[in-house]
Structure formats: C-alpha cells, structure tokens
C-alpha cells in the first residue's frame, strides 16, 4: 500500500505539460500501461524485500530495482504483444520516467544505464524461454548476481557496459 501512495504522490507533483506527455504514452497503449504500472509496484516490492536500505536511494538496491523494473515491464508486455513492441514501449516508458522526475545528471545516467541493462538481460533470456512462460523468478536471481558485481559510477564518462551501476 505504501508503494501505491508513493506513486500517486509522484503523479500529483506533475505539471500539466508532464501529464500530457504521460497521457501520450499511456492512452495509445492502455494494456501496456497497466502492465507497466503493475511492474512498477512489483519491482518496488521485490527491491524493498531484497534491499531494504538501498532500494530507494542511489545504492545497489536502486540498480537492482531499475533493472528488474524493465525486465518485468518486458515480461508482462510480451505476454500480450511481440517482444519488439514490448521493448519499444519499455524504453519509452522508462525514458519518460527520467524526464518526468528529473534527477541530477549522474543519477539520471545511472538509472538509464540500469534500465538498459534490464532490457538487455530480458532480451538475452528470450531465445531460451517462450515469452508466455516467463516468470518473475527468472530475473530475480540473475539480477541479484549482477548486483553483487555492480560498479560504482563516479563520472558521466564512465562506461560499464552490461554491468549494473550505483552511486556511493
């Protein structure tokens, strides 16, 4: 319930222009939007479970949450559409999130990077599992392992392809 309150408080803080941008994403894709919202709630819940101290700041838990978030969006959307359409929507949704709720440049780089790691991870797993049979557990262990080897992002020039990143 606390996670839903956080989301609604964030939505309440949006300007009219930002609400229009959000509607441009959600109205043409109502099922994807519902799936994305559910993925948001699940990723918050699971990140809170595994990383109670760092999921809501810029630590390892945040890296886990962002990458899991994109995997879950992809998984849910792939159950009703093609992986390519799910990937396109996921990228639009997660990029828009960073635009609607801006952070400092290094935090934004971290979030966008971890989002991309999650999308790439899903696409790597896709050939081995029929998209209808994906489950949340497929991602949690792998992303927990990636979190153990996450790198500290110190500058906008840092490039840790395929690795989760966080700030100290």
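^ Assign residues to that structure.
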């Amino acid at each position: 319930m606390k996670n839903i309150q956080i989301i609604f408080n964030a939505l309440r803080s949006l300007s009219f222009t930002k609400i229009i941008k959000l509607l441009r994403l959600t109205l043409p894709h109502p099922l994807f939007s519902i799936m994305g919202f559910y993925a948001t709630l699940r990723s918050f819940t699971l990140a809170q479970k595994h990383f109670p101290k760092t999921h809501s700041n810029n630590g390892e838990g945040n890296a886990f949450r962002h990458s899991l978030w994109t995997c879950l969006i992809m998984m849910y959307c792939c159950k009703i559409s093609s992986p390519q359409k799910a990937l396109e929507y996921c990228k639009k949704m997660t990029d828009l999130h960073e635009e609607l709720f801006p952070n400092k440049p290094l935090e934004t780089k971290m979030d966008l990077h971890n989002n991309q790691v999650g999308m790439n991870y899903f696409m790597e797993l896709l050939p081995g599992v029929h998209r209808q049979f994906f489950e949340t557990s497929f991602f949690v262990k792998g992303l927990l392992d990636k979190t153990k080897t996450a790198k500290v992002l110190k500058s906008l020039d840092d490039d840790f392809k395929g690795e989760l990143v966080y700030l100290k």
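Residues 2-166 form one domain.
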